[in-house]
Write a structure and sequence with these properties.
seven-stranded antiparallel sheet, globular, alpha+beta, four-stranded mixed sheet, single chain, 502 residues, 17 helices
Length: 502
């Protein structure tokens, strides 16, 4: 959950749906066309990234660039801003520079932003705006794999996929309006709308496959290993499996959901790569890539707070609390969410801005809680902090609502369970009783995790290298995923590998 000006953004508790965890997260929609080696910067200063990059006038004044420019600030706000790291910026700029020289439009100017987000994502906006998250940079294992991702997104730009997708989506919205406002035969209209949505989805898949083909051709012509595209698609599938097994499988839109790695897609990518020759063609540039990501943040940043095991802690806000065992935790910009698959129970933590003298009991009854039992509102104290609690019911869900004031801010803990569940009160008590203010010593000890690069020594194994990782789930599996080490293989002596630690 992102800290903004020492306050937490206001988010309202929304009516639950069948997917309670999704309903408890309010996400602002953005229309994205979603779907890297060191260079001599002195020799080619145009490849040097900038905090305020200059876009060529012919690009800036174009209609496509205006569309991208309008969305750019919203993208940065949604993904935590830009991640400032000179080594990474140079590496990404160098890869983009190589790809531009072999593209069909070498005059196209690109603005590249590294997003300060642990989410694995990369996408493009019309007009040459390219984005790659540090989460994706952590997942890639060499320059060729990152080049494959960037070339894929550049293909979306050069093919105007964003504009085509936007047109189809507008047509779909119009169809929805016709169904809801005009047609008398609602069922026939619904079937027509479903067919239209399937056509839109198929159109999107065709765009992705087209971008795969164009991107693989580009990295091959730029001298990178064209088989890196298929390798990264398989890496995404492995990371998705790790994320699901670790209970960190969120339902947000990211590169893993918009670019699903299927056997068919991998086979097609290998087929495109074969046009350049057998495996081993081109460079992977692993060592330069590893040096570039060394020291990069991994996972949550200080602004978002840290999830370690079942505990959430935020140094800037000075607070901490724990989710009950069995709850999968997701740290989103707008809230921290916990969900239990066995029965659908869910917990949401967020905050609101209230005057210092505002009554917490009056605040609970002010209308933001749907289905509130007004008679249940009670003043309370949690570990010496002013608080208030209440009950609510909507549909097939019962809710426990807690608000607590700490360090001048007001926080909300919303616990939901199926109607009549005997566990609601105990779950809510576990969460709120764990809420407290961090001590000075605890704040000093909480530090972000980072990617560290180690050279494997003779005798090193996956187990020995993964043992050096901290505060991650299934360390050996994560080590294999981050470094592209298949099951049954061990690290090679003298080769560089990524681990996650402070």
């Amino acid at each position: 959950m992102v800290l903004k000006q020492a306050k937490i953004e206001k988010r309202l508790f929304t009516k639950p749906t069948a997917n309670l965890l999704r309903a408890m997260a309010v996400v602002s929609p953005l229309a994205l066309s979603a779907c890297q080696s060191f260079v001599d910067l002195a020799a080619d200063p145009s490849l040097s990234p900038s905090k305020s990059p200059v876009i060529a006038e012919n690009v800036r004044s174009g209609r496509l660039a205006r569309l991208g420019a309008a969305q750019h600030p919203r993208i940065l706000e949604t993904y935590g801003g830009e991640y400032s790291n000179v080594a990474l910026e140079r590496m990404v700029a160098g890869i983009v520079g190589k790809l531009v020289t072999v593209s069909d439009n070498p005059t196209q100017v690109y603005q590249i932003s590294i997003l300060d987000s642990p989410v694995v994502n990369a996408f493009a906006l019309p007009g040459g705006y390219l984005y790659v998250s540090r989460g994706l940079l952590a997942l890639a294992s060499d320059s060729a794999e990152l080049a494959a991702v960037i070339a894929h997104e550049m293909a979306h730009v050069t093919s105007n996929h964003g504009i085509l997708r936007q047109k189809r989506e507008k047509e779909n919205v119009l169809a929805e309006r016709i169904v809801s406002d005009v047609l008398r035969d609602k069922e026939a209209g619904r079937r027509a709308l479903v067919r239209g949505k399937l056509d839109l989805a198929q159109f999107s898949r065709n765009q992705e496959l087209e971008a795969d083909a164009v991107g693989i051709a580009a990295i091959g012509e730029a001298g990178y290993d064209p088989y890196a595209a298929a390798a990264f698609q398989q890496r995404m599938a492995a990371f998705n499996a790790y994320r699901s097994a670790s209970g960190a499988d969120d339902q947000g839109i990211d590169f893993l959901s918009t670019h699903p790695s299927t056997p068919q897609r991998v086979a097609l990518a290998v087929g495109h790569a074969r046009k350049f020759g057998g495996r081993g063609t081109g460079t992977r540039d692993r060592e330069s890539y590893m040096r570039g990501v060394n020291g990069m943040l991994f996972g949550d940043s200080a602004d978002e707070g840290y999830v370690r095991s079942q505990r959430y802690s935020h140094v800037g806000l000075g607070i901490t609390f724990e989710f009950p065992d069995g709850f999968d935790i997701e740290n989103r910009p707008e809230a921290v969410l916990g969900g239990r698959q066995s029965d659908g129970a869910a917990i949401r933590f967020d905050g609101d801005d209230l005057p210092q003298n505002a009554s917490l009991t009056e605040y609970i009854a002010s209308g933001w809680v749907e289905g509130l039992d007004v008679s249940s509102v009670r003043a309370a104290s949690i570990n010496g902090l002013e608080a208030a609690t209440a009950k609510a019911s909507v549909g097939r869900w019962d809710f426990d609502v807690t608000v607590v004031r700490a360090n001048g801010a007001v926080y909300r803990i919303l616990t939901a369970a199926p109607s009549g569940s005997s566990e609601l009160t105990s779950l809510a008590n576990k969460v709120r009783s764990s809420f407290r203010v961090l001590s000075k010593a605890e704040k000093a000890e909480l530090k972000p995790l980072r990617i560290r690069i180690l050279k494997a020594e003779a005798g090193d194994t996956v187990a020995s290298m993964a043992a050096r990782m901290r505060d991650v789930s299934n360390a050996q599996t994560l080590f294999r995923v981050l470094n592209g080490v298949p099951e049954g293989e061990e690290p090679e002596a003298g080769k560089l590998y990524k681990i996650v630690t402070q």
